[in-house]
Amino acid sequence: MTITEAPQATRRLTTSKAMVEAIAQEMDRDPSVFYLGEDVGAYGGIFSSTTGLLERFGPQRIIDTPISETAFIGLGIGAAVEGMRPIVEVMFTDFMGVCLDQIYNHMAKIHFESGGNVKVPMVLTMAAGGGYSDGAQHSQCLWGTFAHLPGMKVVVPSTPADAKGLMTSAIRDDNPVVYIFHKGVMGLPWMVKNPRSIDEVPDGEHTVPIGEARVAREGSDVTVVTLSLSVHHALDVAESLAPQGIDVEVVDLRSLVPLDRDAIVASVAKTGRLVVVDEDYLSYGVSAEVVASVTDRDPTLLRVPPQRIAVPDVPIPYAHDLEHAVLPRHDRIERAVRTAMGR
Amino acid sequence: MTDVLFPALSEENPDAEGVLATWFVTEGSAVTADQLLAEVQVDKVSAEVLAPSAGVVHLLVEEEAAVPQGTPVARIE
């Protein structure tokens, strides 16, 4: 059997391979960059965030740590304060509870408390998100919590190219940057298949500025502001509604801190309709912040009430059907877009 | 012309079947030596398949297809 398709130039990678490529390139370029965390060495990261790096850079720069997040985040902070550029992995965002003091009282506040004299140029990577029955303590996003606490940048890539570009920018940034990757965008063969997790990635040096949203799809009727895996769902919905004459614009935030409020307002100024899709919890979070970004500036831009599609303030169920019922998936996004359009 | 084989991921079972999880190239595209062509999987173990030489690649197996290891999955001309 031969598959016939038009030839095209390709240099495609999964999101995980793109992320690893950025780390490897920065480690080649700068000897002060190193990576530490649980199972990041021989295992290559349980979600393939470090595959092949131990073989290439050795155990001095790719460091497997014991299961003590407080200790090894503290190690990273100390190294950063002394001029290194560590990348520290917390296996799941869900585990922030055991080490939050190091993150928000130390990593995020040293620059402030030293009157700007001490920098903490570290990257804190974490896997996030649900959809694959991993239960309430291994499926949360929690990016809104990090974005709420001042002193750290927060980036959340959705595509392979952005995963590479934002990682490069995060490593080079003199501020602490929390880099959160959703397991569902990594392109892992054993996870839920996601065709949007494999795409073209620029060769060589590639940076994406932290704090700039991206219009993932242009449209004129409804703005969907979203991030991470939900960008992929929103694009699926946009493509399915296009033949019915509903033209959806999808804005991928890419970065929560700084938040690109201008891009949100610009899109809503064009469409007059806003749907926010966020896989984090509904209340006190990203979705409300996005709405406020519009209403603070000019509430008259909205021709219909804004809608927020998020996890409805319950722990994420293990049971497949229940989990899919609370996650912001295609059915809920489509309903919200139709409500905004009155059809 | 070079055949690209599904790698032997299972040592204890030479006839093990695997899945062509992901194609990173499309039919008829030009590839360089060592370029990533595919990711394959046997049980929970995955491996990368690299181009053994430069040329034009022809895909012989569809994504998601299950094939015995050792089967040619692509041909480079």
Automatic annotation (TrEMBL), chain B:
Domain Lipoyl-binding: 1-77
UniProt xrefs under Pfam families: Biotin_lipoyl
InterPro entries xrefs: 2-oxoA_DH_lipoyl-BS, Biotin_lipoyl, Single_hybrid_motif
Keywords: Lipoyl
UniProt name for this protein: Lipoyl domain-containing protein
Record organism: Nocardioides jiangsuensis
